Amino acid sequence: MYFFGYALTVYFNIPFLLTSLPVRLRPWKNDGLRVDAVFPSEIHSHCRHQRFYFDGGALLVRHDYTADIVSRFASGAHFTSDYVELGGLLIARQRRVFTRFGGLVLPFPVLSAKIRPVEVGLL
User: Residue 68 is part of which domain span?
Assistant: First the structure.
Protein backbone atom coordinates (compact mmCIF):
# COMPACT_ATOMS: atom_id res chain seq x y z
CA MET A 1 0.00 0.00 0.00
CA TYR A 2 2.81 2.39 0.87
CA PHE A 3 4.59 1.71 -2.46
CA PHE A 4 1.50 2.25 -4.61
CA GLY A 5 0.38 5.23 -2.53
CA TYR A 6 3.55 7.24 -3.01
CA ALA A 7 4.01 6.00 -6.58
CA LEU A 8 0.60 7.25 -7.71
CA THR A 9 1.05 10.52 -5.85
CA VAL A 10 4.34 11.16 -7.65
CA TYR A 11 3.11 9.94 -11.06
CA PHE A 12 0.11 12.26 -11.10
CA ASN A 13 2.16 15.22 -9.82
CA ILE A 14 5.29 14.90 -11.97
CA PRO A 15 4.67 18.08 -14.03
CA PHE A 16 4.23 20.10 -10.85
CA LEU A 17 7.02 18.41 -8.86
CA LEU A 18 9.61 18.99 -11.56
CA THR A 19 9.14 22.74 -11.27
CA SER A 20 10.31 22.63 -7.63
CA LEU A 21 13.08 19.98 -7.74
CA PRO A 22 16.73 20.35 -8.68
CA VAL A 23 16.86 19.16 -12.31
CA ARG A 24 19.29 18.87 -15.20
CA LEU A 25 17.84 19.17 -18.71
CA ARG A 26 19.25 17.50 -21.80
CA PRO A 27 17.95 17.21 -25.36
CA TRP A 28 16.48 13.84 -26.26
CA LYS A 29 15.48 12.23 -29.56
CA ASN A 30 13.02 13.91 -31.94
CA ASP A 31 12.97 17.28 -30.16
CA GLY A 32 12.25 15.62 -26.83
CA LEU A 33 13.74 16.37 -23.44
CA ARG A 34 15.47 14.28 -20.79
CA VAL A 35 15.08 15.54 -17.24
CA ASP A 36 17.31 14.23 -14.44
CA ALA A 37 15.70 15.09 -11.11
CA VAL A 38 16.77 14.82 -7.48
CA PHE A 39 13.97 14.16 -4.97
CA PRO A 40 14.48 15.34 -1.38
CA SER A 41 14.00 12.82 1.42
CA GLU A 42 10.75 14.49 2.54
CA ILE A 43 9.06 13.48 -0.74
CA HIS A 44 8.25 9.79 -0.56
CA SER A 45 9.20 8.32 -3.92
CA HIS A 46 10.96 5.37 -5.54
CA CYS A 47 14.45 6.85 -5.12
CA ARG A 48 16.26 10.18 -4.93
CA HIS A 49 17.66 10.27 -8.49
CA GLN A 50 15.11 9.75 -11.26
CA ARG A 51 15.11 10.35 -15.00
CA PHE A 52 12.16 11.46 -17.11
CA TYR A 53 11.86 11.46 -20.90
CA PHE A 54 9.39 13.76 -22.65
CA ASP A 55 8.56 13.59 -26.35
CA GLY A 56 8.54 16.60 -28.71
CA GLY A 57 4.95 17.37 -27.63
CA ALA A 58 5.99 17.54 -23.94
CA LEU A 59 4.25 14.26 -23.02
CA LEU A 60 6.01 11.96 -20.54
CA VAL A 61 6.89 8.74 -22.37
CA ARG A 62 9.43 7.14 -20.03
CA HIS A 63 10.41 7.36 -16.35
CA ASP A 64 13.52 5.56 -15.07
CA TYR A 65 14.03 4.85 -11.38
CA THR A 66 15.08 2.26 -8.83
CA ALA A 67 12.38 1.03 -6.47
CA ASP A 68 14.52 1.31 -3.33
CA ILE A 69 11.75 -0.12 -1.15
CA VAL A 70 11.99 -3.39 -3.16
CA SER A 71 15.77 -3.62 -3.67
CA ARG A 72 18.66 -1.48 -4.83
CA PHE A 73 18.66 -3.77 -7.89
CA ALA A 74 14.98 -3.11 -8.74
CA SER A 75 15.62 -0.67 -11.57
CA GLY A 76 12.75 -0.01 -13.91
CA ALA A 77 11.84 1.83 -17.07
CA HIS A 78 8.21 2.96 -16.79
CA PHE A 79 6.63 3.72 -20.18
CA THR A 80 3.43 5.73 -20.52
CA SER A 81 1.26 5.99 -23.64
CA ASP A 82 -2.30 6.21 -24.97
CA TYR A 83 -2.95 9.74 -23.72
CA VAL A 84 -6.50 11.09 -23.51
CA GLU A 85 -7.77 14.50 -22.49
CA LEU A 86 -9.66 14.55 -19.22
CA GLY A 87 -10.91 17.86 -17.86
CA GLY A 88 -8.27 19.75 -19.84
CA LEU A 89 -5.41 17.49 -18.69
CA LEU A 90 -3.73 14.78 -20.75
CA ILE A 91 -3.72 11.46 -18.88
CA ALA A 92 -1.75 8.38 -19.96
CA ARG A 93 -4.01 5.33 -19.99
CA GLN A 94 -1.32 2.72 -20.71
CA ARG A 95 1.50 2.09 -18.24
CA ARG A 96 4.14 -0.60 -18.65
CA VAL A 97 7.19 -1.16 -16.46
CA PHE A 98 10.22 -3.12 -17.67
CA THR A 99 13.30 -4.23 -15.75
CA ARG A 100 16.33 -2.12 -16.54
CA PHE A 101 20.02 -3.04 -16.26
CA GLY A 102 21.88 0.26 -16.66
CA GLY A 103 20.76 1.58 -20.05
CA LEU A 104 19.45 -1.81 -21.23
CA VAL A 105 15.69 -2.37 -20.96
CA LEU A 106 14.62 -6.03 -20.92
CA PRO A 107 11.89 -6.90 -23.46
CA PHE A 108 9.21 -8.28 -21.11
CA PRO A 109 7.06 -6.17 -18.78
CA VAL A 110 6.99 -6.71 -15.02
CA LEU A 111 3.84 -4.59 -14.77
CA SER A 112 1.27 -3.62 -17.37
CA ALA A 113 -1.81 -1.57 -16.61
CA LYS A 114 -4.55 -0.06 -18.73
CA ILE A 115 -6.19 2.79 -16.83
CA ARG A 116 -9.72 3.94 -17.51
CA PRO A 117 -9.90 7.50 -16.17
CA VAL A 118 -13.12 8.62 -14.56
CA GLU A 119 -14.60 11.93 -15.71
CA VAL A 120 -14.79 14.37 -12.84
CA GLY A 121 -16.65 17.64 -13.11
CA LEU A 122 -17.18 20.64 -10.92
CA LEU A 123 -20.66 21.89 -10.11
Answer: 2-114
